Every structure is written in C-alpha cells, then in structure tokens.
Amino acid sequence: MRGASLRARMSLLASVPLLAFPLLAIILFLFANSYFDRLMLHKADADLVLARTHLQHMQQELAEEVESLAASQRLQKLKTGVHTDIGLGDVLHSRAENLKFDFLAVLDAEGHVAGAAHGVSEGDSYPSLHVADKAIS
C-alpha cells in the first residue's frame, strides 16, 4: 500500500503542471487579447493622425502650387491672348505633369473651359465639381 500511495503522489505531482497549463493559457489569452486590442486601437489612431497630418501638408503644398500657377505672368498672358507662341492647353498639360495632377483646367466666370491639360475642349462646360462650383460662386 505504501508503494501505491507514493506512486499516486508522484503521478499527481507530475500531472499538476499539465492541469494548470490550460488554466494559465486561458487567463493569459484573455488578458493578452484585451491588451492586444488596446494596442491595435492605439496604433490605428496614431496612423490616422499621421495620415491626416500628411494629407493636410500635401493640400497646403498643392494649394500654394496652384496659387503660384494662377498668379504666373505667363499664364495670365496666355489667357488674355498676349502670347500665342504656345497654347494654354500645352502649358497646362506640362504643369499638370510636373505637379503630378490628374487634371488641370482654367475656367472662365461662367464655368466654361478656357484651357485644359487633358480631355476637355476650349469653350466646353466643365463637369460639375464641388471645387469648381465653389470657385465660380
């Protein structure tokens, strides 16, 4: 009997870590899952702030580029017809490529195209865009 008792004690002692492992794994999973969720939410917030800041910086740079282009002597002279050596559309196409713009157009007060870099003929009505509608108003 005494040998069986020692064997039972040793078996129980050896099996305690095996029984405790699932319990510890469940506790660790619950706490780590909660911590991981908080970590991912914090990272997503930080990434959104970074993206927003970058977008604002890009918008500011592009606004300055467009203002510089609109105020340029060459564009003003081409628009009024003083210079006829090169077309307004060709200049706008070149500037659109340099600035990496998808489209670039000069509109008159009624919203008709005075010159465009891509696809729209002079005198046509420009497709309705919020920015163009806001600028014309």
3D structure, described in words:
This protein has 137 residues and is mainly alpha-helical. The chain has helices at 2-71, 73-80, 88-99, 130-136; strands at residues 105-107, 113-116. The protein has a two-stranded antiparallel ribbon. Strand 1 and strand 2 (113-116) form a beta hairpin. It is rod-shaped.
List its salient traits.
137 residues; single chain; 2 strands; two-stranded antiparallel sheet
Distance between the termini: 101 Å
- Largest sheet features: 2 strands, antiparallel
Query: Helix count, per DSSP?
Result: 4
Instruction: Decide which structural class fits the backbone.
Output: mainly alpha
Shape estimate = rod-shaped
Please outline the helices and strands.
Blueprint: H1 2-71, H2 73-80, H3 88-99, E1 105-107, E2 113-116, H4 130-136
Antiparallel strand pairs: 1-2
Quick overview of this protein structure:
With 137 residues, the protein is mainly alpha-helical. The chain contains four helices and two strands; from the N terminus they run αααββα.
